[in-house]
Amino acid sequence: MKSWLATTTSTLGLAATLVAGAAGQAAAAPNPERVTLTSGNSVYQADLLRFSPDQSWLVDGVETLFTDLYFLNLGNQPQQNLRLEDLRLVGASQPASDQFSATFSTFGANLNFSLDSVLLGGASGSDRATRQETVTLTNAGTDWLDVTLFKYIDFDLQFDSPFDDDSGVFAGNTFTQTDPSGAMATLTVDQAPTAVQFGSYGPLLAELYNSPATNLQNSPGPLENTDITAAFQFDRRLAPGEAVVFKFVLDVQGRAKAKAVPEPGTAFALGVVAAGLALLRRRG
To answer: Higher confidence at residue 134 or residue 12?
Structure first.
């Protein structure tokens, strides 16, 4: 079970953010803030734009995901990474219940970010499902563009009920996370990252979310017996009109024995928004 608490140091600032978000929702259909994909034994829900309570990936009714986000940095800007909510939505479509696509553009119109997501659920009771994500970055400007893509992932393998006893390692362009029950999640990318950084829940997400902009410290594990999170950095230099494509495959495989009853979780606090939001996470 997940719950979130948001507080703010400026009520007016928070209200302004919520009003702007509501206006954005009215303009977009389908809505990248409310994505739901279904296939076989699997249901994936996400707010693609930001850190959100709507992130979830149920496999045979068991939660396997807490957060899955993309961040960008353009021209080595030192101020802060961009989230998808900082970009302009160009268009979105959901051609089938297991597919979603969206394209975003920077407000200077010099970079387009496109995401195509497909959910491949398994047979009922298999404890297995796959997601395929294709990210395309296109330099729509007239000058060379330095761009950095970050992929952040926080699997929660709750097949054995705890989520803070997992281990992870990165090798051969694949991040592998396991828990003592034998459950496993993998994230594979079709090209080598510039850097891979692991950490326990909290600091790594805050590093990506807050100022100054991030430059990951390469630490691909192994990291053991913790609530593990991982981030992947890809530095690219694009000529005018050039595009680069990243293909990510995420796979979850639960253990075969009966699921345990979840125990109460532990609360973790993380301040992630410069405007003063504090997010409290309780998982279990």
So the answer is: 134
| Strands of 166-171's sheet in order across | 88-96, 99-105, 111-121, 128-139, 243-253, 184-189, 174-178, 166-171, 223-226
Residue 278 resides in a domain: no
Identity (one letter) of the amino acid at 18? Answer: L
Of 257, 79, 276, 249, which Cα lies nearest the Cα of 161?
257
Judge whether residue 144 has pLDDT over 50: yes
The structure tokens 């400026």 sit at 10
In a domain, 282, yes or no: no
Cα(104)–Cα(233) distance, integer angstroms: 20
Pairing of strands 42-46, 99-105: unpaired
- Separation between Cα atoms, residue 55 and residue 49, nearest integer Å: 11
Radius of gyration of the chain (CA): 18
Whether the predicted pLDDT of 283 surpasses 60: no
With respect to residue 14, please indicate whether it lies within any of the assigned structural domains. Answer: no
Boundaries of domain holding 51: 36-266
| Per-residue pLDDT reduced to its tens digit, 145-195 | 999 999 999 998 865 565 667 889 999 999 999 988 888 999 999 999 999
Q: What would the two tokens of residue 207 be? A: 């590093």
The number of domains in the chain is 1
Distance (Å) of CA 7 to CA 4, 198, 237: 10, 28, 39
Give yes or no for a cis peptide into 212 (omega within 30° of 0).
Answer: yes
Query: What CATH number does the domain containing 181 carry?
Result: 2.70.98.40
- Inform me whether the pLDDT recorded for 20 exceeds 70: no
The CA-atom distances, in angstroms, between 184 and each of 45, 129, 157, 164, 177 are: 20, 11, 7, 14, 6
Instruction: Give CA separation, 221 vs 169, 178, 231, in Å.
Output: 5, 13, 12
Model confidence over 231-251: pLDDT tens digits? 999 999 999 999 999 999 999
In a domain, 231, yes or no: yes
